[in-house]
Amino acid sequence: LSSVPLQLLFYINGIYYIFYFLATLAMIVYKSQVFSYPDDFLAPDLALLFVMAILEVLRLYLGSKGNLTEEEAPLGLSLVITVGSVLLSVYFLVWQTYVLKADVIINAVLLFTYGLESLLKVTAIAAFV
Amino acid sequence: PPETRAAAPARPRRGPAPVTDVAKLCVCDLLVAQCDVNCCCDPDCSAADFSLFTTCSVPIVTGDSRLCSQKAATYSLDVKANPPKRISKLIDHVNPSVFCIHSTNYKQALSFSPPEMPTAQNFDRLLKQYGSATFSVAPDSWNVNTDAQNPSDANETYRYEYGVPIQTVDAFLRLPSPVVSSWCSDTNPAGFLVNQATKCTRSVSVEKCDNIQAVSMLFYINSSILAVPKSSQMVNITVQSIVVQSLNGTRTLLNDSEVLRLPMILDELCINIVLGVSYHITYTDGGEIIEAAASFVLGAINQAALSIEQSFEISFTQVNTKPVPLSGNPGYVVGLPIRAGFRPRGYPFPVECLLAALVLNTNKYNQLTILQSTSNQDCLAAQGARTPILFGYNMISGCKLRITAAMKCQPLAENLLDLLKGQSFPEYVASFGNSQAQDVLDWVPITHLHASEQKIYPAFQTPCQIPVSLEIEVKWTKYGSLVNPQARIVNVTATVTTTTWKQLPSGRERTIPVTSSVVFTDVSSPAEPGYKAWPTINVKLPFDFFFPFV
């Protein structure tokens, strides 16, 4: 049987990620205006943000599909992509050029969501296998 | 010697390290080793100084306030205590905003980056990156681009105007001059009608003296001057005279100036080095150069000489005129000599004295002169040295006269008058700096006055008087427009003050001071505004207005 909490979490994650993406983009624009943000530091930050967005879409689609069709393969792939997303989130938390307090807060929330999701995915895979 | 210094390895130097500890930073600490008033963070202040402060001008010292949490040093004055004490605390300052900087991974984010120190390796790169027109060696406008001309002015006749650089076949006529430092720069062009005199230093050495272009005569006369700008008519620079200066400074004029003398090495000296060039350019009133001559001073250097001082000058004379130095055009210029002359007997107009060489008072440039004080201050031993009176400069000079019993009054009085006034005191002074001798009304006669020190004379006795002071008062006015007033002399008065002669008993002597002075007084009347004439209303009734009565 599909895991309802996992599906709920996917739904909330999707909405939260849209907010996260817009907030991070807005803050990067704010930082580039207020602080000294040379181009060779700005480009990697923006590029990684867009890569993260693509990975997130892929991850949520695969996870949702795997959960609803009760197959473990897409869920497993989604788990693997989650590792990448976690790394990117840690980048935005620690290794970004300017880390504001707001960055710390939203990245912490995102990491918490990822952690919870991973746990539920593992239990779902265990249930489907 | 610079060669041995270059052998040492170049060490990159660093600027001073930035101070980031807030406890050590103090913005109001301006005086070194002294207590600044009301500066609570000044380490030079003692507790006694703090008790005199009224407030703290700098209450808190923090780093960048956008950081989320940082150390801050606060200073405050506890006025309730007696005596007032300074309280300094180190606290953690927290920025409540959600957009405060938590951390950064970019080192230069919050502070200025220390600039790169130039070394021999990165100098060219830094110069290319940061240098601009200020640091380039030759300005871009030096290479005259003859293609970028309008074809429409091909038929215009060009002529030189004041200040235009004099063009030669390859570039411009150069007058080396010091730029920024005292070393010669060869890129200073000579301007038309701009009389210039410059002195600069050039580095030389005996071994390379025949390779240095700027010390050889050829460098200064090889390119011909164009008679008018952008034309093909050329004027060669002729050598007018050559003066040779020996190592101990004596100068001799050479008889033949036709031979070109180039630097050459002779017995450990290098001779024929150019020490000075003086150009004389003759021009027409149409702005064309017709003649150019150069006079050289050549010298010699020995092994020990590392640099020489070269002097250059250029002067312009109009063709068919004899140059007369003007003291202003038209108004007198402060610092230039006053021109004077006198009317020779028999001529109705004042003419500048042509026997100028013999006249000691108006020296050979027809100037008004005053006695020059000498070091021994003895009037009777004075050699007749006189100094020209410069417009606008009040002068006083004098000497001491020792009167002995053996002197007689009358010859002494005549000697003193000659001493004060000079051999022939002029009668007229030019009212403008450029007054010509033919214009009678431009010359002001000198009024002579006689004053005596003692006012009352015993009756029936005209005692002998000796002159003790000559005071020349020159009254001048500002003439012309308000924005460019010209100085014009309106009145010159020479007052001779005399004192009675007292015959001394034998063996006694007396010393009296004899002075001569010049005073310039400005008698300008206040400026009057000049308005245009009021428009008049011209109203006339028609001719037949009162028809049929008229």
Portion in beta strands of chain A? under 5%
Mean pLDDT of chain B: 81
From the helix content, strand content and strand pairing of chain B, which structural class follows?
Answer: mainly beta
What order do the helices and strands of chain B follow?
HHEEEEHEEEHEEEEEEEEEEEEHEEEEE
Low-confidence stretches of chain A: none
Tell me the series of helices and strands of chain A, N- to C-terminal.
Answer: HHHEH
Helix-residue proportion of chain B: under 10%
Largest sheet of chain B: 7 strands, mixed
* Terminal-residue CA separation of chain B: 111 Å
Subunit arrangement of the protein = heterodimer
Figure out the total of helices of chain B.
5
Beta strands of chain A, count: 1
Could you tell me the number of beta strands of chain B? 24
Most strands sheet of chain A:
none
What features would you describe in this structure?
The complex is a heterodimer of chains A (129) and B (550). Chain A is 88% helix and 2% strand. Chain A has 129 residues and is mostly helical. In chain A, helix 3 packs antiparallel against helix 4. The mean pLDDT of chain A is 93. By secondary structure, chain B is mainly β. Chain B is extended and about 105 Å long. In chain B, the strands form six sheets. In chain B, strands 7, 10, 11, 12, 13, 14 and 15 form a seven-stranded mixed sheet that branches. Chain B has a seven-stranded mixed sheet with strand order 16-20-21-23-22-24-19, with helices on one face. In chain B, strands 1-2-3 form a three-stranded antiparallel sheet, with no helix packed on it. The N and C termini of chain B lie far apart (111 Å). The A-B interface holds A 27, 30, 35-37, 41, 94-105 and B 68, 97-106, 108-109. Strand 1 of chain A pairs antiparallel with strand 4 of chain B. Chain A: It is a multi-pass membrane protein. Chain A: It is found in: Cell projection, Cilium; Membrane. Chain A: This is TMM80 protein. Chain A: InterPro entries: Uncharacterised_TM-17 (IPR019184).
